[in-house]
Design goal:
With about 280 residues, the protein is of the alpha/beta class. The chain is built from ten helices and 13 strands. Helix content is about 35%, strand content about 25%. A six-stranded mixed β-sheet has the order 6-7-8-3-9-10, with helices on both faces. Strands 2-1-4-5 form a four-stranded antiparallel β-sheet, covered by helices on one side. It starts with a strand and ends in a 5-residue tail after the last helix. The mean pLDDT is about 90. It binds adenosine-5'-triphosphate and magnesium ion. The site of adenosine-5'-triphosphate has 11 residues, from helix 1. Magnesium ion binds next to helix 1.
Length: about 280
């Protein structure tokens, strides 16, 4: 569905590459996570793939249509939600969606229904200038679904939303995924990436450092730590043991042999561990 080959992009005419030679493909119906630290080049990539920035080097196609090809044909197939909300402040939420719906040459979904889906039913007739940041973000998300796109690009659709709204949008994304829509999802939320994505790519300094399923990455890079509770002079003691080398295994063996162990829990590796391991930084 999405084919990207040797994509490179520089904002300053070739000295530094914000996107530095990336290639990947996303199959039909797949949810592909695009992860990485601030400034890694995620938004730049999405902007190129959605035709907002020019293609400087490399190539990309969506559903067999070249990103540089005929614009209207391309725009009819994709939905895009940007990191920074861009909507008409003087129009209401409903008027915004009606206006954008008119730009498509394909049948569009009912704007009122989409606003409801994004939890904006009470703000339908409010001017977008009066919307809060999270409301604007949800409006942009609703707008990205207008043409019932085959391929949906979402850049940080959830960051900045309150927990209830975040859960609602996450569920909507799940529903879209279940309908077979291909999704390119950029996010800093490792739980959401883990839950929604079939595969994820970690981008760092414009390059893909690793690309795999969340499960494989957690197995490969996650911490292998177990939490052991054992009896120690009548009291319960707790110890975290790393199993990456023999010392840990020996310690576990000793505790087991002494028959003192009460519980053993493996600490589940998370994508956040993988992120830190791969990029050497935590999330800001
Ligand atoms: N309009 C611009 N002009 C010049 N440089 C830019 C512009 N937009 C982004 N950059 C630079 O390109 C690099 C990649 O930025 P980009 O916005 O793609 O990162 P990102 O991965 O989306 O980060 P974040 O997680 O903060 O959203 C950064 O070094 C950034 O400073
Ligand atoms: Mg970004």
């Amino acid at each position: 569905m999405l084919e990207v080959k040797n994509l490179r992009y520089s904002y300053n005419g070739g000295k530094d590459y914000a996107v530095d030679g990336i290639s990947f493909s996303v199959s039909k119906g797949e949810t592909f996570g695009f992860l990485g630290p601030n400034g890694a080049g995620k938004s730049t990539t999405q902007k190129i793939l959605t035709g907002l920035l020019p293609m400087q080097q490399g190539s990309a196609s969506v559903a067999g249509i070249d990103v540089n090809g005929q614009k209207s044909k391309f725009f009819n197939k994709i939905g895009v939600s940007f990191e920074i909300a861009n909507a008409y402040n003087k129009l209401t939420g409903l008027e915004n969606l009606e206006y954008f719906a008119g730009l498509f040459d394909v049948p569009t979904r009912d704007p009122g229904e989409l606003l409801k889906l994004a939890g904006l039913e009470e703000a339908v007739n409010m001017k977008v200038g009066e919307y809060s940041k999270g409301m604007k973000q949800r409006l942009i998300f609703a707008r990205s679904l207008l043409n019932d796109p085959e391929m949906l690009f979402l850049d940080e659709p959830i960051s900045g939303l309150d927990p209830t709204s975040a859960r609602n949008i996450k569920n909507v994304i799940k529903g879209i995924k279940d309908r077979g829509t291909t999704i390119f999802l950029t996010t800093h939320d490792m739980h959401i990436a883990d839950e929604l994505c079939d595969r994820v790519a970690f981008l760092d300094e414009g390059k893909i450092v690793v690309l795999d399923t969340p499960r494989n990455l957690k197995l490969r890079y996650g911490q292998k730590i177990i939490n052991v509770e054992y009896k120690d002079n009548g009291r319960t003691a707790e110890e975290q043991i790393s199993l990456i080398d023999d010392t840990g295994w020996e310690r576990l063996h000793v505790l087991m042999k002494e028959g003192k162990v009460e519980t053993v829990h493996s600490k589940e590796a998370t994508l956040e561990h993988v992120f830190i391991e791969l990029t050497g930084r935590g999330l800001d």
